[in-house]
Design brief:
By secondary structure, the chain is an alpha/beta fold. It has a single domain, classed as Rossmann fold (3-Layer(aba) Sandwich). It is 43% helix and 15% strand. It has seven helices and seven strands. Strands 3-2-1-4-5-6-7 form a seven-stranded parallel β-sheet, with helices on both faces. Strand 1 (7-10), helix 1 and strand 2 (31-36) form a beta-alpha-beta unit. Helix 3 packs parallel to helix 4. It is globular. The N and C termini lie far apart (48 Å).
Length: 244
């Protein structure tokens, strides 16, 4: 570990895409700060990553401003700076609109919207002062183009809103040398989906299959490296958002 090495903060890093991103960034020589709501799951992630001092797990709900602030304070205290923020933490609830409960609506807003806004505020302050940095939001292909076969209004509204916010924040932070982009995955092979569901879910995509975590990580790493791409929403969705 060296404070000269680049550092990434990844929210929701205990499983699925977030854990895969942590593995990919570690392979690229980054220090990784991963967040999660469960100390036990963060400890399990740290054991799997086996990165020693190059991984820091921070427990907390980044949908709360004090938790987002604590993540950056701990990251900077240990590694000196944050070069990349990946707003990955998210939940996905698919059901008819009229069946969403108030609790589900509030939970989705907290995780999928506030969980992007508060970490991004901390990143914007830190990176603007350094005049360098990358903010990358993991959104959803449904936020680019809704699908009649997938009733998920909360994902469409919130992830779609974050797609637009990505463009707005990119304009705001461009004078400071900070880029802001999003990756919008289609259905990805994570523990969220059973093996038996893969064929049906894959049929939603023109390429005829669901995506892999590695394919999402490739897109995120590209945006982390690029200094001249900002304000873009990059679909990684097998053609799902291209239309029918």
């Amino acid at each position: 570990m060296s404070q000269s090495d680049p550092t990434v903060v990844i929210t929701g890093a205990t499983s699925g895409i977030g854990l895969g991103l942590a593995e990919s960034f570690l392979k690229e020589g980054y220090n990784v700060v991963g967040t999660g709501r469960s100390t036990g799951r963060l400890q399990a992630a740290a054991a799997r990553l086996n990165a020693g001092e190059r991984f820091l797990g921070v427990t907390g709900d980044v949908g709360k401003p004090e938790s987002a602030r604590a993540v950056f304070e701990q990251a900077i205290a240990k590694y000196g700076k944050v070069d990349v923020l990946v707003n990955n933490a998210g939940i996905f609830t698919a059901k008819p609109f009229t069946e969403f409960t108030p609790a589900e609506i509030e939970e989705n807003i907290s995780t999928n919207l506030k969980g992007v806004l508060y970490p991004s505020q901390e990143a914007a302050r830190h990176m603007s002062a350094r005049r360098s940095g990358r903010i990358i939001n993991i959104t959803a292909s449904l936020g680019v183009l809704p699908h009649s076969g997938v009733p998920a209004l909360l994902a469409v509204a919130l992830k779609g809103g974050v797609n637009q916010a990505t463009r707005a924040l990119a304009l705001e932070l461009a004078p400071y040398g900070v880029t802001v982009n999003a990756v919008a995955p289609g259905v990805i092979d994570t523990p969220m989906h059973t093996a038996e569901s893969h064929a049906a879910l894959g049929s939603l995509h023109p390429l005829g299959r669901i995506g892999t975590i590695a394919e999402v990580a490739d897109a995120v790493l590209y945006l982390a490296r690029s200094a001249y791409v900002t304000g873009t929403v990059l679909p990684v969705d097998g053609g799902f958002s291209a239309g029918k």
